[in-house]
Amino acid sequence: MKIRAAVLERTGGPLTVTELDLAGPGPGEVLVRLHASGVCHSDQNAIDGTAETRCPAVLGHEGAGVVEAVGDGVVSVAAGDHVALSWAPSCGQCSECLRGLPQLCAAAWPAMGVGGLLDGTSRLSRDGEPVYHYSLISSFAEACVVPERSCVVIPKDVPFEIAGLVGCAVTTGVGAVWNTAQTRPGDRVAVVGCGGVGLSALLGAVAAGAAQVVAVDVSEAKLEVARELGATATVIWAGSPEDTAEAVRDASGGGVDAAVEATGRVEAMLTAFLSTRNRGAAVLIGIPREDAVLPLPALSIPRMERRVLGSIYGSSRPERDFPLILDLYRRGRLPLDKLVSHRLPLERIDDAFALLRNGEARRAVLAL
Ligand SMILES: [Zn+2]
Ligand SMILES: [Zn+2]
């Protein structure tokens, strides 16, 4: 079939909205008619080369839509189902899956690296030449073919733009608090960086019953949003990790149990670490440059039992966590609607990325 899609022609290059050929779903694959796709920092990292990506590629990995057709052997979804798409379709059989780490599945990550689906080949092409997938999803398009295990069926009353965000930003942020940090009622949480992922972590902390939620950002406008979403205190960037962390410790009565870092910047990671109290953890979500190094004051690690926890995709199990998150959303306990600040058509994808880069958007969503 012919689809319209936004193609990254080369690293650093423009996104061109153009017509592509999309092959039908192979065995174990699903054709999804997309209705919404969030615009994420990981896509920006692919555009500017922070993360190496095989081009030409269709980016986008925060998608949701309706199943249009299924390939041989697909049993868990059927035409007409509404689905949120997971970019970490775990195999359930590798050593990582067997030890309870589906987010690190040894089958999914290598496939992502070569720009194919799970068998390493692409369903996208233009004039007979291959166009590559991104994160097994490629949701900056009218439709996509994805692995069956990327499809999580959702209730039909959930807006597609919300389901799309649950496919990446929301699960990454909420999961970091619930799964990685294991935040409990009464805990103190800080969130460093209040973009879409950071604000999701903030909402997750509020929903988990954190007693204090301290939001940190360089932008007063973002801190205003954080207060609206339930932050109990806000701290504006004070010019250095040390001074900013001191302000967080003051605002939280002596430091936090979990400091979630959602920017990928080393200074923000250090701020998170220095914001913790005894036994506290810096929870690192933001994706840094490949050559970034994080120096930490070593003494406080044994002396205070401070920890650093990595978190990818919120340490989540999408088939368990997407429904859990959407259930709380439907009951009003996770006001995810407040994350969506801009809705744009595919043709305006450059504007969506401009909003991401200049920090204006909570989350910009493409209506497809
Ligand atoms: Zn993402
Ligand atoms: Zn696996």
Structural commentary:
It is a single chain. By secondary structure, the chain is of the alpha/beta class. The chain folds into two domains: 2-167 and 335-367, Alpha-Beta Complex (Quinone Oxidoreductase, Chain A, domain 1), CATH 3.90.180; 170-312, 3-Layer(aba) Sandwich (Rossmann fold). It contains twelve helices and 18 strands. The strands form three sheets. Strands 3, 5, 6, 9, 10, 17 and 18 form a seven-stranded mixed β-sheet that branches. It has a six-stranded parallel β-sheet with strand order 13-12-11-14-15-16, sandwiched between helices. The chain has a five-stranded antiparallel β-sheet with strand order 4-1-2-7-8, with no helix packed on it. The radius of gyration is 20 Å and the shape is globular. The mean pLDDT is 96. One zinc ion (ZN) binds at residues 40, 42, 61-62, 168-169.
